[in-house]
Amino acid sequence: MNEVPPYSASSVEVVRLPAGETEPDDIAVEEPLEIRVGGRAVAVTMRTPGHDEELALGFLISEGFRPSSARLPDDLAANTVEVEAEGADFDRLKRNFYTSSSCGVCGKGALEAVAVEAPRVESELVVSGELVARLPDRLREAQPTFAATGGLHATGLFDASGELLVVREDVGRHNAMDKAVGWAFGQGFLPLSDKVLCVSGRLSFELVQKAAVAGCPVLVAVGAPSTLAVELGRDRGVTLCGFVRGGRVNVYSEPQRIR
Questions:
Q1: What count of other Cβ atoms lies within 10 Å of the Cβ of residue 103?
Q2: Any idea of the CA torsion for 74, 49, 10, 143, to the nearest 10 degrees?
Q3: Which has the least CB within 10 A, 8, 56, 166, 239?
Q4: Any catalytic annotation for residue 103?
């Protein structure tokens, strides 16, 4: 198990019942992050610190921007990332919402506001059901901060053989996905046409949206999908595998990729 990054967890005093004893307890850190493009604030998200540049890149990619790099801002403002993105269309983002740590769609007001044009995922990737069934356990083994706090979501990126390429944790499931996609962008892996994404929770509409924009053909989750997630998966050609636990796999869309 990897060590817990010092910036991702913090110790607090907790009273444990029924004994009534006071002991230290590790909990996940949650702080705001401001994302800027060309010096202009375009989003604020509540996140677990760490891999902030990847988060900013992945978020903007999912919102239809074409970023090239991310760095600390010139004014060195805390909890802020500056992203370079040529030809940024700020109207597309409609910066009138607040992204909470529990749901990246909250406050956007309408489904159309989060719809991002993405081509249908075309991929010849085929993986076995046995491989898919093993991915959540491999992801869990690589979650040091979750093991310490029990308070984080995770996204793992796997290759076609089931090798874990990267795992990212965050209080927000959408942030964990953005961090993984941002990492893949930095590695030159986009589109993810020969990769598999695995998430630790449920399959929401937004996670399927982000996978589709990244060009990933298979998205795996421990939990259940929503109706909109399944609808989007079928529309954009993403294979959705839910309730992946105990050797079971439910395939909700594009089942031809699972043998």
A1: 15
A2: -150
A3: 166
A4: yes
- H or E segment at 58? helix 52-62
Q: Is the pLDDT of residue 25 over 50?
A: yes
CA distance 93 to 63: 7
The total number of residues shown for the chain amounts to 259
Distance (Å, whole) CA 147 – CA 223: 18
Cα–Cα distance list, 159 to 92, 166, 186, 216 (Å): 32, 10, 16, 11
Helix (H) / strand (E) element for 95: namely none
Strand ranges in the chain using DSSP code E only, listed in sequence order: 9-16, 21-28, 31-37, 40-47, 67-71, 80-85, 153-159, 164-170, 195-199, 218-221, 239-245, 248-251
Model confidence pLDDT, tens digit, residues 81-122:
999 998 777 776 654 343 444 454 543 433 454 455 688 999
Residue of 147, 157, 151, 201 lying closest to 171 (CA atoms): 151
Rounded to the nearest 5 degrees, what angle is found at the Cα of 255, between the Cα atoms of 250 and 259?
Answer: 90
Q: What is the pTM of this model?
A: 0.87
- Please give the C-alpha separations between residue 15 and each of 19, 93, 113, in angstroms, as whole numbers: 9, 44, 43
Which one from 103, 106, 198, 216 is the annotated catalytic residue?
103
For tokens 């040529």, what's the residue? Answer: 86
3-state secondary structure of 118: coil
